[in-house]
């Protein structure tokens, strides 16, 4: 059995492993082993969700498992119980622990607590991690945090592959805030050999640590404050909301700062012929994207949304399957 593999961001996978996950996502559900048959999946949501909850629950069902939706208030991470105790409790019952949290550090603590409990049990010859007694070696999956949104990035890659086939050498222009969605998307682009252009207003661009991490992955990245420059010749345009959940008090300031950074007909006309437009949703038409582009012929937004299910199914299948590379089917 492969050692526990947590998925907190894209670079928790090697490039070969990412390819294996995507191949599973592209496979018909009937071709995948029911790796969750008779097993539970804990889905902890400190933040509400539409696509993430529905796609994850249905992916668990497709793999034969039983999803258990848990609101943040029910476990009270670091209020009623520590993140470590919540993780160890859930790993007593579930084959995988998926969490949508405010603080990315909570995910690291949860994963570390499960790893330590399993290692401690093995070291003392206590009950093993897979015999149903005690904390099991349950992977922790990031359903969104302030630092990353890797399951969205998997769906983005899946969508782009459906449109273009192999992605190496293709160019992607991201216009907006260099946020958690951007961070995972940038890592995804690096790992499949895409070129990334990022257009952000001053003060909303990538941090130095982000650029260093992407440079280590070999990403060909360009950062500009000119959306047209970023969009020119790009194979795909991508946008996200200007004001994310938890930033509501900044909404008006952000609307002013991001004026001129909407994906509109001007940006689309600057892109390559046959370019597509992506948006991770929810969308605010008239702000980060115009209604005409969002609903237009170049938009693959709804294919992208549908791929959240396929991406999650592929990821869970890979994480919970035996073997080193997980290349089946």
Low-confidence stretches: none
Structural class: alpha/beta
Overall pLDDT, averaged?
A: 93
- The termini sit apart by 17 Å
Proportion of helical residues: 40-55%
Shape: globular
Helical segment count: 13
Topology record:
Elements: H1 15-26, E1 40-45, H2 51-62, E2 66-71, H3 72-75, H4 83-93, E3 94-100, H5 104-123, E4 140-144, H6 150-164, E5 171-175, H7 180-192, E6 195-199, H8 208-216, E7 220-224, H9 227-231, E8 236-239, H10 251-257, H11 265-270, E9 276-279, H12 291-294, H13 301-319
Parallel strand pairs: 1-2, 1-3, 3-4, 5-6, 5-8, 6-7, 8-9
Helix pairs in contact: 1-13, 2-13, 4-5, 6-7, 6-13
Features:
329 residues; alpha/beta; five-stranded parallel sheet; four-stranded parallel sheet; 13 helices; 9 strands; 14% strand
